[in-house]
Design brief:
Layout lengths: L13 E5 L6 H13 L5 E4 L6 H17 L3 E5 L2 H6 L4 E4 L6 H7 L4 E5 L4 H10 L3 E5 L16 H9 L4 E4 L8 H5 L4 E4 L1 H4 L5 H14 L1
Parallel strand pairs: 1-2, 1-8, 2-3, 3-4, 4-5, 5-6, 6-7, 7-8
Helix pairs in contact: 1-2, 1-9
Bound molecules: ligand LCLJCK34, ligand 3NM and magnesium ion (MG).
The site of magnesium ion (MG) has 4 residues, from loops.
Length: 216
């Protein structure tokens, strides 16, 4: 995530936004613009679970220009081929989202992120195949998805002391609980609820997260 990772907070950690799993595109485009106007965001991951490719295409066409106008990378969840076909800046793949090595070849020069749960072994494998970042989680309970794996901050310390490849922390992260993750070396904090469900709106969510990152 080289281009996306320039100019972050004083802690060197940046915010990684993920969309809600279902959204009203017209309303969400305005929410996204307000969120990106509010402060530093490295990237947006489009994560529409169970959406048809045509819906993902429509969402990409509506949202990617908003991201690019704010110098924010646009990453597609789950599908490297569709990310390539739609001209996205990259893809995020989980452990059951197809052939990681094939995705690396297809997305040459683009961002490839890989979910590694709480596994040092999976992270080493992802690093060896050329992932641009590895994602660890879930660090905290979350209502956004049912999680089977639970990570602790020591995996961020272990990874960041040993590897140059950035690491992303995910799962139930809020402005109130993120400080140990930043201090343990997370390069990015990936959030859904902390921004889109913030009681004062997404702009307030981005401001609160960036303030917490800077204060950590
Ligand atoms: C940044 C980031 N980290 C982890 C995930 C989870 O990916 P995955 O395990 O494939 O689960 P789904 O998102 O597909 O439900 C992610 N999306 N983004
Ligand atoms: C999409 C996702 N993946 C996770 C993992 O642990 O791999 S946790 C998660 C949900 C993140 O949403 P929130 O910030 O609202 O908790
Ligand atoms: Mg996935």
């Amino acid at each position: 995530m080289n281009a996306a990772s320039q100019g972050g907070s004083s802690a060197g950690c940046r915010l990684y936004l993920i969309t809600p799993p279902r959204l009203d595109l017209v309303r969400f485009r305005d929410d996204l613009a307000a969120a990106l106007d509010a402060g530093d965001v490295a990237c947006l991951q489009l994560r529409l679970k169970d959406a048809a490719p045509d819906d993902v295409k429509r969402a990409t066409e509506a949202l990617m220009p908003v991201c690019h106008a704010h110098d924010v990378a646009f990453i597609l969840n789950d599908d490297a081929k569709l990310a390539h076909a739609l001209g996205c800046d990259g893809a995020h793949l989980g452990q059951t989202d197809g052939d990681h090595a094939g995705a690396r070849k297809l997305l040459e020069g683009k961002i490839l992120g890989i979910t590694c749960h709480a596994s040092r072994h999976l992270a080493m494998e992802a690093g060896e195949l050329g992932a641009d970042y590895v994602a660890f989680g879930a660090f905290f309970p979350t209502d956004t998805k049912e999680v089977l794996h639970h990570a602790t901050p020591d995996i961020l310390e272990w990874w960041s002391e040993m590897m140059e490849i950035p690491c992303v922390a995910i799962g139930g992260i809020t402005a109130q609980n993120c400080a140990p993750l930043v201090r343990s070396g997370a390069d990015f904090l990936a959030v859904v609820g902390a921004v889109w469900n913030h009681p004062d709106g997404p702009a307030a969510g981005v401001k609160a997260m960036n303030a917490a990152i800077a204060a950590a």
